[in-house]
């Protein structure tokens, strides 16, 4: 991997993309609306594809350019559309009331986790001129915030969004610190497959729950 200086144009853009992705994770943590969960994730994924494009431009790697395009298509467009169509609209999900703690407390814990990630990770990266020194701690913070979303949210769809945020954080860290095309592709494909399976499991379990609560007349009407 060619050194990507934090003072170069690409380095500044990658730093900016990482900060925007972190803000999207915080915004998702601070919201109670399912539609906003998906919107913040979609925007975060678009920014992630932009970050991949920045690294691809710096590396001059066509494979990384293809990866950026796939990230935009799958994470920024396909997954949000599928989540809205098959989960939010199908099960009429509007407001998330299944929270294990308040939003203020969640944000305080999120700030603490972000500080922890920066203090513990940045000092382990000795090459101070590399952009990875700033981006990797942010990527770890995004992973921790996604995990926090999964802990404080009790609804399955909200926990699914938390997992997708974790996936974006892992992807950002891989782009900033490795930028090796085969490794990123393998990790990205695996995480996307897991995300697809989770979406299908959530859809099937929600449908089964609706059928279990349906009355006998409704079931007879469906059978007709």
Give the tags.
8 helices; 224 residues
Protein described:
The chain has 224 residues and is mostly helical. It is 79% helix and 0% strand. The chain contains eight helices and no strands. The protein has helices spanning 9-29, 34-59, 62-88, 103-121, 132-152, 156-177, 181-213, 216-223. It is globular, with a radius of gyration of 19 Å. It starts with 8 loop residues before the first helix and ends with a helix. Mean pLDDT is 79; it is low at 211-216.
Mean pLDDT: 79
Shape designation: globular
The topology string of helices and strands comes to HHHHHHHH
Largest sheet: none
Count of helix runs: 8
Short description:
The protein is built from 8 helices and no strands.
Question: Can you lay out the helices and strands and say which pair or pack?
Answer:
Layout: H1 9-29, H2 34-59, H3 62-88, H4 103-121, H5 132-152, H6 156-177, H7 181-213, H8 216-223
């Amino acid at each position: 991997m060619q050194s990507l200086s934090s003072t170069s144009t690409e380095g500044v853009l990658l730093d900016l993309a990482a900060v925007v992705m972190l803000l999207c994770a915080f915004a998702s943590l601070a919201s109670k609306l399912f539609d906003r969960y998906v919107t913040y994730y979609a925007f975060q994924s678009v920014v992630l594809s932009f970050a991949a494009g920045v690294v691809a431009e710096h590396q001059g790697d066509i494979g990384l350019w293809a990866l950026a395009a796939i990230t935009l298509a799958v994470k920024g467009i396909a997954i949000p559309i599928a989540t809205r169509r098959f989960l939010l609209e199908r099960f009429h999900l509007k407001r998330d009331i299944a929270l294990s703690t308040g939003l203020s407390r969640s944000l305080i814990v999120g700030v603490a986790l972000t500080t922890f990630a920066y203090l513990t990770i940045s000092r382990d990266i000795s090459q101070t001129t590399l952009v990875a020194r700033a981006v990797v701690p942010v990527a770890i913070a995004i992973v921790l915030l996604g995990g926090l979303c999964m802990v404080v949210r009790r609804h399955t769809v909200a926990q699914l969004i938390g997992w997708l945020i974790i996936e974006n954080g892992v992807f950002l860290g891989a782009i900033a610190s490795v930028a090796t095309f085969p490794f990123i592709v393998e990790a990205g494909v695996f995480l996307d497959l897991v995300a697809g399976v989770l979406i299908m499991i959530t859809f099937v379990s929600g449908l089964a729950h609706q059928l279990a609560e349906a009355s006998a007349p409704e079931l007879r009407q469906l059978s007709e």
